[in-house]
Amino acid sequence: MKISVIVSTYNAEAWLEKVLIGYSNQTYKDFELIIADDGSRPSTKALIDSYAQNYPVPVRHLWHEDLGYRRQEILNVAIIEAVHEYILMTDGDCIPRKDFVEVHAKYAQKGRFLSGGYCKLSMKTSEAITKEDILEERCFDVKWLKSQDKLGFSQTLKLSTDGVLATILDTVTPTTPSFNNCNSSGFRDDMIAINGYDERMKYGGPDREFGERLENYGVKGLQIRHKAICLHLDHARGYKTPESLAANLAIRKDVRDNKIVWTPYGIIKGEKPA
């Protein structure tokens, strides 16, 4: 299984560097790393270039001009540019545990997308994590994290379980599997079949809508929230507005009510070719 890991980012070099360190430390090496950049400043490119020179897997930087929040557009470009059959979507504020890509490769299966979650950290802990903490896996240790700041019960549970118990928890969890851009994966052909992300959508659920169209297409979610572990670094969300949330909810309702598969606002603009 060859995988294209797509990491979205925007003007967050300190967090992106920690993520790059995490992907340099993976047990599974058969992947490429694509940074889908929604118009970051030149220092982001400089950071990526400095790591790409001596990185254990191929690294590519896809960038478009900063014209406001257009993450879904650059993600659609990344889907088309991905060279491998399987795509793992994540964010530039999510540090992967060393078995992160391996878990997605292990559980990938036709007719499914994998639905993971994240362990949310406070700003204090996010800032405290160093390169050595990532490479030596200290930052995934519950005791170490609690020595930095408080850690919620859900985060503690995810970080404390593995093997059979993690599988049991993923089976019995009341949380419905959904496509979450921080930690989800699926086959590239399925993503192209639904025409990628709906580019009308701003912050607040475009990845969920993407997953709902995958479901309508017949690709069902499989829960791996206790197996595929990543740490979510804290940050502000200045792009979150009531207007964008309301518009996105209306689009998602239409998708669910009418079992929509293809968006005319995706990779291809317009109706699905005959």
Can you characterise this structure?
- By secondary structure, the chain is an alpha/beta fold.
- The protein is built from twelve helices and ten strands.
- A seven-stranded mixed beta sheet has the order 3-2-1-4-8-6-9, sandwiched between helices. It has a three-stranded mixed beta sheet with strand order 5-10-7.
- Helix 2 (42-52) links the parallel strand 2 and strand 3 (59-63).
Task: Supply the key terms.
274 residues; alpha/beta; Spore Coat Polysaccharide Biosynthesis Protein SpsA, Chain A; 7-stranded mixed β-sheet; 3-stranded mixed β-sheet; 12 helices; 17% strand
Q: Which structural class best describes the helix and strand composition?
A: alpha/beta
Count of structural domains: 1
Strand order of the largest sheet: 3-2-1-4-8-6-9
Note the run of SSEs as H and E.
EHEHEHEEHEEHHHHHEHHEEH
CATH T-level topology: Spore Coat Polysaccharide Biosynthesis Protein SpsA, Chain A
Contiguous uncertain segments of 5+ residues: none
Portion in helices: 40-55%
Reading off the top of the CATH hierarchy, the class is best stated as: Alpha Beta
Give the CA-CA distance, first to last residue: 31 Å
Query: Counting H and I runs of at least 4 residues, what is the number of helices?
Result: 12
Average pLDDT over all residues: 96
Number of strands: 10
Overall radius of gyration: 18 Å
How much of the sequence is in beta strands?
15-25%
Major sheet attributes: 7 strands, mixed
Shape: globular
Fourth CATH level, the homologous superfamily: Spore Coat Polysaccharide Biosynthesis Protein SpsA, Chain A
